[in-house]
């Protein structure tokens, strides 16, 4: 996906009705020794980092349970859409664990430090409506009879992104992600560097031409 230039947006969904991702298999985990557990969780963390580093926008379609590592997967995405009946939580402390695949870092960056601490300390599960109210998800929708309402909303959101200039979208994502990790002056410099990369693109020229000619632009990602 990282190197496929035809990919504009990636949507993560589950093929299992009622479950987005239920997290680690604790029965499997119980068979591992301490060293194996550490290696396993490190691999999970690396996977989430790879997802977060995808250059194109990513959307998690949460149509059911997103617990533990499942919510960490959703947090590694840029955008999250949930069914109102979905259940989300970093429940690790209820099993004697703590989030180990990015949850302690990504959740506070999304909902704020105080709320993240409360959710992690208590292991509480929240539904899609509460997730929307605290900013954990971008959109919440009523579940439908097929059980894929969040996926349908995620696809609609992806279709809003698709017509936009692909390289500009990628640079926007990069500028936001890198800028959030530094002070605002450094962030402005990062934005400037990303903008400079976008200036010579054919898509920028096409966007300007389309505006002058009062027509829709035809972006090619170059």
From TrEMBL:
InterPro entries: ClpP/crotonase-like_dom_sf, Enoyl-CoA_hyd/isom_CS, Enoyl-CoA_hydra/iso, Enoyl-CoA_hydra_C. Pfam families: ECH_1. This is ECHD2 protein. Belongs to the enoyl-CoA hydratase/isomerase family. Keywords: Lyase. It comes from Tricholaema leucomelas. GO terms for biological process: fatty acid beta-oxidation. Gene3D superfamilies: 2-enoyl-CoA Hydratase, Chain A, domain 1, Lyase 2-enoyl-coa Hydratase, Chain A, domain 2. GO terms for molecular function: enoyl-CoA hydratase activity. One of its GO terms (cellular component) is mitochondrion. The keyword Electron transport does not apply. The gene is Echdc2. It comes from the Eukaryota.
